[in-house]
Amino acid sequence: xxxxxxxxxxxxxxxxxxxxxxxxxxxxxxxxxxxxxxxxxxxxxxxxxxxxxxxxxxxxxxxxxxxxxxxxxxxxxxxxxxxxxxxxxxxxxxxxxxxxxxxxxxxxxxxxxxxxxxxxxxxxxxxxxxxxxxxxxxxxxxxxxxxxxxxxxxxxxxxxxxxxxxxxxxxxxxxxxxxxxxxxxxxxxxxxxxxxxxxxxxxxxxxxxxxxxxxxxxxxxxxxxxxxxxxxxxxxxxxxxxxxxxxxxxxxxxxxxxxxxxxxxx
Length: 266
Ligand code: NAD
Hints:
alpha/beta; Rossmann fold; seven-stranded parallel beta sheet; 7 strands
């Protein structure tokens, strides 16, 4: 994994959805940069223990799991409270957790719509409103929301995901304006297709279903919209997040930064 060059010694980072994929990579990068980390994410005890150990191995002074089902408002509130109890004010909040469901809009299951809006958008709002008072008292902070190229472009059959991610872009810009004079920055990162276990599983399944190679799935099915014709690496997202946390990024706020191999250049 790429080494982070940022020095974020002693900062308290809270990352959601850190038990897998992009969130795990981000949390490891922040641990390498010297953060004390609180992380949420679903998983059994062995998974949580292994994530905690990987964060300590990466150099985190302290790593604590703050469990939450992000569909539930009171659990999002409890997650932030638990993180503050362990490590004090949250200096860096990364809203990363997200889920997906694909269906024509007229058939879209209402419970899937509700869950996607709850995890991908409402939980971002609730975590921000809970963590922000501490940041305002401290006069500094970083809020980074992991959106998607789908915060900027639509695709058919992803009504809930696209709606939620566009909402994250709007929420990011609004909060950035509200806190612009306080030393807190608020940004969204908008990845294209990223090489996560989730996406790898989809590649294998699609290769079987279509009887084509995994390379062909990536090239001809998934990356049609991604001009670089390669998946983005988790580390590329993680290093951008670590940079956004640095002092050098103090004037970068209210942005939705694509890391999408040129997708949104079209
Ligand atoms: P992933 O499935 O590997 O990880 C998702 C994480 O969210 C896990 O830790 C999971 O436990 C957590 N989570 C899911 N539902 C939850 C719930 N109800 N309560 C608490 N935690 C919950 O996904 P990923 O590919 O790493 O995606 C992470 C983020 O990046 C998401 O917001 C996703 O929309 C976004 N993203 C991913 C891609 C991609 O190609 N992988 C592209 C663009 C944006």
